[in-house]
Amino acid sequence: MTRPTAHSARCILVAAVALLLGAVRHAPAADGQPPAGWDPVAAGNRVLARLVRVTAPQVKGAHDAEFVCVGDRAYVVAEVNDLRGGENAAWPEIYCALSIVTLDPPALEAVIPFARSEQDFANETLPPGACFVPRIIRKDDDTLRCYFASEQPGRRQAQTWFRDFDLETRSFADTIHKARLVTAAGVVDMEPRHVDEHRDMVLAAAAVGVKGIFIEKPLCRTPAEADDMLAACQRANTKVAVAHRNRYHPVLSVLRRLIDEGAIGRLLEIRGRGKEDHRGGAQDLWVLGSHLLNLFVYFGGRPRACTATLLQDNRPITAADVRPGAEGVGPIAGNRLHARYDMDRGYPAFFDSVRDAGNVTTGYGMQLVGTAGIIDLRADQEPTAHLLPGNPFTPAGSPRSWQIISSAGIGQPEPLADIDWQVAGHGAPARDLLAAIRDDRPPLCSLDDARLTIEMIMAAFASHRAGGGRVEWPLHDRGNPLAAW
């Protein structure tokens, strides 16, 4: 789908108001059919004739709008910016505004910005970053509640806030508040990522009999937390699926079959790299490398041992380099990391990450290297897999070409029209979780699978602390080795 332009996004906002009026004035008959003599062209022209712009004149980009109607007015919230068309969570100039629109006749009465980067309120100051994806509800007869997310991707954890609007005075409160979820087991902050709270949230959900949980990765901060989560969910028979979404890609079973059939000869090793952006090193291992570690196990079996080195600016890290990691992952250190895992199926898997060394659009992924070819798997991209036939260690006499691998096989176009929805849209994990609850089985990417990923991260830290020595499974230390350094 093509991203809407600033103009098209504004049209979406105004069309919603016009269509609402059209629906009220030209309601279908009781049997659901259009009234006799109804002219769709004339109806469409009436809608177009009533379009009005509901963003401020200086706005160049608008997106993600929602509205409520109170009396004869619509109250529309949208994320907007005054500098460029489109939208991106990494643009700090994006702010949230409320537009007040009369419905009959349709006209813009007022535009009131209500949240922007580093804005001061009576009780809080927003951090730098975009104010994103606003939502609006009618809280009561006198109040509208406007929600928004404050985001700075890759640098901090996002936070959802709300600010109340008084309908009588047509003004916002001078305070903002964190959005929280009220559950039978307590109250928790509503945030896209909160790794340091995953354990308590899962335990609370299991305690009240929740049947299924779909949880963001990484699962938690330590193997000990994962142990607690697994025990609680086993007692309650709560199924937990973890959002390592590439594990659900239908091409994976094709790749494993091709390997078993000898498409790349004898599999020698697996090599993975993170995005290697500003998070390169330990943070990259946590946030993005965890996806690849999960796939290492899919292809290589469970790990037997790990050896690793963590560096800060090309020198081995020391206790003085340990710092809190972003997104609540716990203590980390190093902007360069090299880890080797000896896998149960007999070959090693390597994960490497060097800060600012990668190409964020193509570098993130893994390769399965064999004696007769390479299978390349790019995380979060379509097509996700390619084959390069031939011995990778022998110079070719003529150019060799990469061949697409789809769920239908080598060189075949992807037959699944909804592949993006299944993987990037988390449709396949959701369906699998429901089936796991129904069939009383573990989800495809289960809590136990995700616990092993956390152990693999901790094993890399433990190996470095041991001077790069071999750390074997099972891991007896269930904490973070950097925390006690």
Oligomer: single chain
How much is the average pLDDT? Answer: 89
Tally of discrete structural domains:
2
Terminus-to-terminus distance: 49 Å
Which CATH architecture of the largest domain would you pick? 2-Layer Sandwich
- The name CATH uses for the topology of the largest domain is Dihydrodipicolinate Reductase, domain 2
CATH class bucket of the largest domain: Alpha Beta
Biggest sheet layout? 11 strands, mixed
Structural features, described:
- By secondary structure, the protein is an alpha+beta fold.
- The protein has two domains: 6-178, no CATH class; 247-415 and 446-472, Dihydrodipicolinate Reductase, domain 2 (2-Layer Sandwich), CATH 3.30.360.10.
- Helix content is 25%, strand content 31%.
- It has nine helices and 26 strands.
- It has helices spanning 6-25, 40-49, 198-207, 223-236, 251-260, 282-300, 419-423, 427-439, 447-465; strands spanning 61-70, 73-81, 95-103, 106-115, 130-140, 143-151, 159-166, 171-172, 177-178, 180-183, 186-189, 212-215, 239-242, 267-273, 303-312, 315-316, 323-324, 331-332, 336-343, 348-354, 365-370, 373-378, 385-389, 403-406, 409-410, 471-472.
- Strands 14, 15, 16, 19, 20, 21, 22, 23, 24, 25 and 26 form an eleven-stranded mixed beta sheet that branches.
- Strand 3 (95-103) and strand 4 (106-115) form a beta hairpin.
- Helix 1 packs across helix 2 (40-49), helix 3 runs parallel beside helix 4 and helix 4 (223-236) runs antiparallel to helix 9.
- The chain is globular, with a radius of gyration of 26 Å.
- Mean pLDDT is 89; it is low at 1-25.
